[in-house]
Specification:
By secondary structure, this protein is mostly helical. It is built from seven helices and no strands. The longest helix has 25 residues.
């Protein structure tokens, strides 16, 4: 059942990302990007990363996309200009890029831990892909983190409190500046 949900969410993420790219109007494009973010949050829940899924919804699908839509509507980007109608080269580059990514995914479809270990010359280990890579002993396992929220929040609010607050002031100044600049044009 979990595999079915994963493949459904993955297909929804890929389809909505493609629809985000091919939209001519920026508002539906931003809404398709929100749909992609929700599908990715669902995949994070399946990977037992509920905190990252919640942050994905709150930060990206919520705050960032509201800012995108606010800027799009504030700057009146809904009308296509003459240069936006000449999309031939952009579509060609996008198709070539998508074909390259599909070819790379097709090339690694049968990669396993054993084949990865054989490629890098490591002894065959069936426990995890990290064990087959050189220097994998320095990587902490997921079981080592007992409380992921505390491991993220402690450095952010103790060590990096001043840069965190300065970033929020900078974002606030940018939002106020965008409103002032757009107000002059209206």
């Amino acid at each position: 059942m979990t595999e079915f949900v994963f493949y459904t969410l993955a297909a929804a993420a890929v389809l909505s990302a493609l629809l985000c790219i091919v939209q001519k109007n920026p508002v539906p494009s931003a809404l398709w990007l929100v749909s992609t973010m929700f599908a990715l949050a669902g995949i994070y829940v399946l990977l037992n990363a509920q905190f990252i899924a919640a942050m994905q919804v709150l930060v990206y699908a919520g705050a960032v996309m509201v800012l995108f839509l606010f800027v799009i509507m504030l700057l009146n980007l809904g009308h296509a200009s003459e240069t936006d109608r000449k999309r031939g080269p952009v579509v060609l580059v996008a198709v070539l890029l998508a074909a390259g990514i599909a070819a790379a995914l097709f090339a690694v479809r049968d990669t396993s831990v054993a084949s990865l270990a054989a490629r890098v010359g490591a002894p065959e280990v069936a426990s995890s892909p990290l064990a087959a890579l050189p220097g994998a002993g320095r990587v902490q396992s997921a079981e080592a983190f007992t409380n992921p929220i505390a491991s993220i929040a402690r450095p952010m609010f103790e060590t990096y409190l001043v840069p965190f607050e300065l970033t929020s002031v900078l974002l606030l100044a940018a939002a106020v500046g965008a409103v002032v600049l757009a107000k002059r044009k209206l």
